[in-house]
Amino acid sequence: MRKRMLATITGCAALGLAGVALASGGQGGAGAASRLDDGKDLLPQARITEQQAISAARGAATGALDEVDLEHRKGTLVFNVDVGSSDVKVDATTGTIVAVDHDD
Predict the structure, then answer these.
(1) 99, 74 in Cβ contact below 8 A?
(2) What is the pTM of this model?
(3) In degrees rounded to 5, what are phi and psi of residue 85?
(4) What is the Cα–Cα distance from 88 to 1, expressed in whole angstroms?
(5) CA atoms within 13 A on the CB side of 42
(6) Rounded mean pLDDT of 61-71?
(7) Separation CA 51–CA 63 (nearest Å)
């Protein structure tokens, strides 16, 4: 009886984790698909992850997520995240929003 109950609880927990992964778009883990286009060679210098930069950018602009670049802007390494009609620049060290440029 205990083995059956333990198996049921374990199965429910696994299904719950799978649901959370699907609800979050399946991203954020080690196998998450990268949207990084330019600047892959700069990744070792970044202190935040691409996914953290995307989360910060989505808090500053709305719309569909497009590509992500890692580049220097005014001496600061930034993730340039295209969200909707905005280019959101996220400091690659602190995760703070540096600028939001709106496309015309």
Answers:
(1) no
(2) 0.68
(3) -100, 25
(4) 55
(5) 21
(6) 95
(7) 16
